[in-house]
Amino acid sequence: MEAVKKFNWSCKRTWKSSAKNTMWCVVGCSIGDFGTILFFQLSEISLPVIGIMILAIINGLLTSIALETIILMRQKFNFTKALQTACGMSLISMISMEITMNLTDYFLTGGAVLTWWIVPVMLTVGFVTPWPYNYFRLKKYNQACH
Asked: How confident is the model at residue 5 (pLDDT cuts 50, 70, 90)?
């Protein structure tokens, strides 16, 4: 319990760095997530909302891993090492982000609906949810999800 009390939550540099890492995660996850929802919304393919949302979460995770792999390869990682690193990044962060984004959509629109006003709300919730966890990982273990 004493170790928790001594943890420093007030480091501006770490908050800034973890915000940047979290934003990359939001971008990667939202590409697959929103793309899936938009596809089903425009194509009018009949699938239960829960099915669309599960597919959106899976596609969000996959696009986040793909984006991270590309970013790491641009930082001179070879493909195998970049993919391994991307797959080893914080799944807790990505999953929490995806679930809260989709729950926000579900509670505010009934689910699997993209409108002009729900997208910024989903992105904000998706950013805020894993940000403290990403700060903690970065500060305590010097490990970033991106």
From this structure: low
At 132, list the tokens: 């403290």
How far apart, in whole angstroms, are the C-alpha atoms of residue 71 and residue 75? 7
Q: Quote the tokens at residue 120.
A: 């910024």
**pLDDT tens-digit map of 47-88:** 999 999 999 999 999 999 999 899 889 999 999 998 988 887
Helix residue ranges per DSSP H, the chain: 2-6, 12-43, 49-74, 79-88, 91-109, 118-128, 131-141
Name residues whose C-beta falls within 8 Å of residue 28's C-beta, 6 or more positions apart in sequence.
60, 63, 64, 65, 66, 67, 68
| Residue extents of the structural domains in the chain | 27-141
CA distance 51 to 59: 12
Local structure of residue 143 (DSSP, 8 states): -
What is the reported pTM? Answer: 0.87
Query: Is the pLDDT confidence value at 89 over 80?
Result: no
Residue 44, burial from CB neighbour count under 10 angstroms (0-12, 13-18, 19+): exposed
Burial status of residue 66 (CB atoms within 10 A of its CB: 0-12, 13-18, 19 or more): middle
